[in-house]
């Protein structure tokens, strides 16, 4: 049997999200606890993975398609997916690139190719997989070019085999300056609690300004907007110091509710500088989420070549996220109106000196372009 490789850069009664954008958030929070293993630092792009898998679902049929719709909360009509995923994110600070790599003479159906090119705005390129080293070099170079050289070695020669016929890639790159940058002169070493008895010193930024802020019984939330964009860095800080299973404490519904309750307030923010980079082989995690046939000989991707001779052999994803006084750089192989309240009196204290969840959020759609948790400053 031939093999299909997807690179995402990033039942009886199926459950669908209202829109693909809702699906990104729901899928992201399904994947988050599985990705955040052993209470380590975690970073991934739900949007990048989702977009790559949606491209693959466009060629799925039968039980495989049903599984993909359920796992990724895809709408019943897949024709609605591509424009919904690509049209809201046309801002200058965010670069999204997708490509379909095809072995020479591989008979891809015209309808599938047209959907990839016209609906997902992906390039279609021919590549010789019988020369794996050369193919890896070419694909990695494309990924590096589309992530400003931040992700350079997503793929290794062992990821490709002579049976490889297709590779789908998606790259996502974001670079943005804080609308209210932190003053580097105020950055100082501060203790960060990594467990209930241990602290480590880490460079911590500090400023007091008007920010979108909210809280509930469990979390404080602050959103730091990025200049010239509809995005913000949202930080979810537990009110109690929690050192295990942090990602399981915030659901997709709570995430949306936290964003909805934000109001403009004076906030004294202390936030560590950090850079995280993580590489995932997502096969096992996606299987746990419900893809039972896609990785096996029972897979049905006949919408790609008209035959049931393809299966998903590997899904790999890599993400990088960096925060400093100026703003954010993020890569993966995505303006809310606020009610202003009175600013007199003491500012809200937001001191991120213990593990927290963070997300790069598109404020118009409320979806997490990147999602992660910081448990130990690198």
Put the structure in a nutshell.
The chain has helices spanning 20-35, 46-57, 62-71, 81-86, 110-119, 132-146, 252-260, 283-289, 302-305, and strands at residues 3-7, 42-44, 94-102, 123-126, 164-177, 188-193, 199-215, 219-225, 231-238, 263-272, 274-281, 312-323, 327-332, 348-351, 356-362, 367-374. The protein is of the alpha+beta class.
Classify the helix fraction into a percent range: 10-25%
Q: What value does the average pLDDT take?
A: 84
The fraction of residues assigned to DSSP E strands is 25-35%
Spatial shape: elongated
Number of helices: 9
Structural overview:
With 378 residues, the chain is of the alpha+beta class. Helices cover 24% and strands 34% of the residues. The protein is built from 9 helices and 16 strands. It has helices at residues 20-35, 46-57, 62-71, 81-86, 110-119, 132-146, 252-260, 283-289, 302-305; strands spanning 3-7, 42-44, 94-102, 123-126, 164-177, 188-193, 199-215, 219-225, 231-238, 263-272, 274-281, 312-323, 327-332, 348-351, 356-362, 367-374. The strands form 2 sheets. Strands 2, 6, 7, 8, 9, 10, 14, 15 and 16 form a 9-stranded mixed sheet that branches. Strand 15 (356-362) and strand 16 (367-374) form a beta hairpin. The longest helix has 16 residues, at 20-35. The radius of gyration is 21 Å and the shape is elongated. It starts with a strand and ends with a strand. Mean pLDDT is 84; it is low at 4-18 and 334-344.
Q: What is the topology?
A:
Blueprint: E1 3-7, H1 20-35, E2 42-44, H2 46-57, H3 62-71, H4 81-86, E3 94-102, H5 110-119, E4 123-126, H6 132-146, E5 164-177, E6 188-193, E7 199-215, E8 219-225, E9 231-238, H7 252-260, E10 263-272, E11 274-281, H8 283-289, H9 302-305, E12 312-323, E13 327-332, E14 348-351, E15 356-362, E16 367-374
Parallel strand pairs: 1-5, 1-12, 3-4, 10-14
Antiparallel strand pairs: 2-16, 3-5, 5-13, 6-7, 7-8, 7-10, 8-9, 9-15, 11-12, 12-13, 15-16
